[in-house]
Description:
By secondary structure, the protein is mainly alpha-helical. It has a domain of 119 residues: Lysozyme (Orthogonal Bundle), CATH 1.10.530. It is built from eleven helices and four strands; from the N terminus they run ααααβααβαααααββ. The strands form two sheets. Strands 1-2 form a two-stranded antiparallel sheet. It has a two-stranded antiparallel ribbon with strand order 3-4. The longest helix has 20 residues.
Amino acid sequence: MVADDATGLFDQLVTSERAVRDPAVTGKQLAFMGHLQQLVYRHLIERPDLRDLVFAAIPQDLRGAADLNIAAGADLYLFGPGGARELPAWRIVSAPPMSALLADYSEAEAAFGVPWYYLAAVNLVETRMGRIRGDSYAGAQGPMQFMPKTWDMYGEGDINDTHDAILAAGRYLSAAGAPEKIEKAIWMYNHDNEYVDAVMKYAEVMRADPNAFRGYYGWQVYFVTTSGTFLLPVGWSKD
């Protein structure tokens, strides 16, 4: 689906970036464009020779988001478990409806003062908006990946429930200093500088243009092992 030349990648990047921001693009077309956007950025991270050619021509109105997306993706390449030998014991499910997620982020923002786009960025990085069901290598659980002991302190309800988990994330980030000290709060959420940088960058893209969330909503679950990179589609399970 993704091109392997600078001209093709440029066309796909501009087309997908504009499409996900267009409210008239919905349904399967929006999902396709969001996934295409993700694939183009992944390919450009892996091919810096093509990235330089593509980025030299990106329209000015898309350049800020493109710079942040490529930098965030590079951060996650450093952060992620790229040396894993086998696929994780996860189950991949459909993300909750976009409207439901946005309502949950907004509720958490109203209750705890944490801007919605930070919660969305955490949700994106942790579980691709709740698509990943399963524990992390460290034992974190649920769509916002809470350690059970942390959940006991900040969670209410079900750690695996999207609404409850997003509210708990807002509660935790607020207690850790957000929104005034949001970067510190995100570091408290996950003690990794690359993780913090990625969340901050994706959040900034959505702050600058809330419609960017529509693209991220279409991003799928990919997992990197020593044998290669694998798409884990909805319905996939290691069992």
